[in-house]
Design goal:
364 residues; alpha+beta; 5-stranded mixed sheet; 4-stranded antiparallel sheet; 7 helices; elongated
Length: 364
């Protein structure tokens, strides 16, 4: 660290006792303030992370429902077992609304148990293109029917933590006819799709879920139960190069603001250059915001990029006020005192910036 360099320590010792005390108080105040800022922003990030995790868990965990008083639901229906295979999936693009998936579904059932041939639909798909391609009769009287389906869904993308986001891609499958005498129950889900873009697949699975709806009929309160199954994939945005690419202008902004503090000489001229670099850091920060807005859909909630921008703005403002105070030190006690103050504040802001971005990557 530059603050421990012998030359700058000598500059600090040359300053008057009053100015040394002011420099020490300013550095301690800056350290405390930056720790508070980092702590507060980290708590907000953790809150968003917990909300994201809670949403995912609510979709992949099976809840227990008391099947009492089921007048219209699934108690008298027969399950049709389904094995799902994901063949391919489109790239996750947070700017696009729809995502294309190509999958195979095998239904296993005994035809004599049903009044009509069982069929399925992807409930959360905006378009379904399903085709029966093969049937196989088993020795026990059961039947395997293989369907190929090309569907488009509108996934709920979780964008507040972009570009360290985790995305849940879910397929909700149910009986094609609500009045049928069967329901679809997934028994297996396999993924054969290749890796997609910057997202790494970290988990796949399925859950068979029962939903309960209150219903009032003939002046009696009852419940309607519906059975559906959800197959899911969880992707993690793990590419560190993509993470750096999305905050490249933030890093440039921080670099300009912090490194401007190293510009100092025995003349007043470099202070004008410092103000110029600090102004440039503001434009770099604005450029990063426009870049992110071009990559994802706008959201109303606080995002990780917003929190990073707040931290960057704090560092820029800190650099600005450090420059003003450095001019005062230079006028009162000379170049050496101003230089020792600049180096000390540079060390505080640079260390805080490095620490903050390491925390982001490790925590999220």
């Amino acid at each position: 660290m530059l603050i421990f360099h012998p030359q700058y320590r000598a500059y600090y010792k040359q300053a008057s006792q009053e100015h040394r005390r002011k420099i020490l108080h300013a550095v301690l105040l800056a350290c405390g303030f930056m720790l508070i800022v980092i702590g507060g922003l980290t708590l907000l990030m953790l809150q968003e992370k917990r909300s994201e995790d809670a949403y995912i868990q609510s979709k992949i965990k099976q809840s227990t429902v008391n099947l009492s008083g089921d007048a219209l639901g699934i108690l008298n229906k027969t399950p049709v077992h389904a094995r799902m295979m994901l063949i391919s999936i489109g790239d996750i693009n947070l700017k696009e609304k729809q995502l294309m998936l190509y999958l195979g579904v095998t239904l296993h059932y005994k035809p004599q148990q049903f009044a009509s041939e069982p069929n399925f639909e992807i409930v959360n798909a905006v378009s379904n293109n399903t085709k029966l391609v093969k049937k196989h009769h088993n020795s026990d009287g059961s039947l395997d029917a293989l369907y190929l389906a090309r569907v488009e869904i509108e996934p709920y993308y979780m964008m507040p933590l972009y570009p360290t986001d985790v995305q849940l891609i879910a397929l909700r499958i149910a009986a094609a006819d609500m009045d049928s005498d069967y329901y679809i129950q997934v028994t297996d889900f396999q993924n054969f799709s290749p890796e997609i873009g910057d997202y790494a697949l970290i988990k796949t699975g399925y859950v068979n879920q029962i939903e309960s709806y209150p219903i009032s009929f003939a002046e009696h309160n009852s419940s309607y139960f519906n059975q559906f199954s959800r197959a899911y994939l969880i992707y993690d945005h793990q590419n560190i190069l993509n993470y750096l690419k999305n905050i490249q202008y933030v890093l440039l902004s921080l670099g300009l603001a912090v490194c401007s503090l190293l510009l100092n000489s025995r003349k007043r001229g470099p202070y004008l250059e410092r103000f110029g670099l600090i102004s440039g850091s503001v434009f770099a920060l604005a450029s990063n915001i426009f870049q992110i807005n071009a990559s994802i859909k706008p959201i109303s909630a606080f995002s990780l990029i917003d929190l990073i921008s707040v931290f960057t703005a704090v560092v820029i403002i800190g650099s600005f006020f450090t420059t003003l105070r450095s001019i005062k030190f230079a006028d009162d006690d000379g170049y050496e005192t101003a230089k020792s103050f600049d180096v000390a504040m540079f060390s505080v802001l640079a260390t805080s910036s490095i620490l903050y971005f390491i925390i982001i990557y490790l925590v999220l």
